[in-house]
Amino acid sequence: MDHPTPAEPTQPAGWLDTNQANWNERVPIHVASDFYGVESFRAGREVLREHEIAEVGDVTGRTLLHLQCHFGQDTLSWARRGAARVVGLDFSERAVDTARTLAAELGLGPDRAAFVTADVYDAAEAVPDPSYDIVYTGTGALNWLPDIERWAGIAASLVAPGGFLYLAEFHPLTDALDDETGSRIIHDYFSRNAWVDDEPVTYTDGGATLVHRRTVEWQHPIGEVVSALCAAGLRLEFLHEHDTTVFERFDSLVRVGEQRYRFPADRPRIPLMYSLKASRPR
């Protein structure tokens, strides 16, 4: 896809409503796509990434909050892996309705898997519990938020003493690369400008043309994210960078597994995703 042209700094008027309309329209396209594979998910396919499963660890008997959960596949996957209760939050009402339906189809009632429609900045007031053992988020979530310090404060406030926040996200370095081969740095890694885009299709297969095409996004360097979480009172346990990603963002990427891509072996490696764990002391 074409990289959006930086607009004026700060927050364009109506950005939240703009993004919400776009994501509401994406939901049925995503549900029908091979990319998300809802039918195989219903049948038991694992959709969590290997590094997430390894780094989060055993969730048996624990409570988990998934911020910006889309239509809940990852959220429900943690319930399948033994979490005592999962709560998913997303600003798309259509996504939350779909998540609730999917949970019911899997036999997971609201006591095991609950979903809430709310802006992530309102999460502390919207979710049913004051705190959770695990706050989980990522994979294309932070770029929709203008204020990472505010996000970190809210997310950290929902981590129970002795619990942790886990974030798995696309590496912001990839946002500085050209959109075709990913071989040239052509954008400002440290830009704080909003990216205003007008993309007619979503990132999955299907090719349906969107009516609500406009989106507003931001990039957040890793140092900004880590510093915000530490300032919010969490203790960084690890920060890992990964040389693979979950979709074919650049034409030059090669497939190395189910929804796993990296640059070919004759190219120097760079980080394409990162993950971190930040805990709250007891």
TrEMBL record:
Organism of origin: Streptomyces clavuligerus
Protein name: Putative SAM-dependent methyltransferase
Matching SUPFAM superfamilies: S-adenosyl-L-methionine-dependent methyltransferases
Molecular function as annotated in GO: methyltransferase activity
Segments forming domain Methyltransferase: 65-163
Name of a matching Pfam family: Methyltransf_25
Taxonomy, superkingdom: Bacteria
Family annotation (InterPro entries): Methyltransf_25 (IPR041698), SAM-dependent_MTases_sf (IPR029063)
GO BP terms in the entry: antibiotic biosynthetic process; methylation
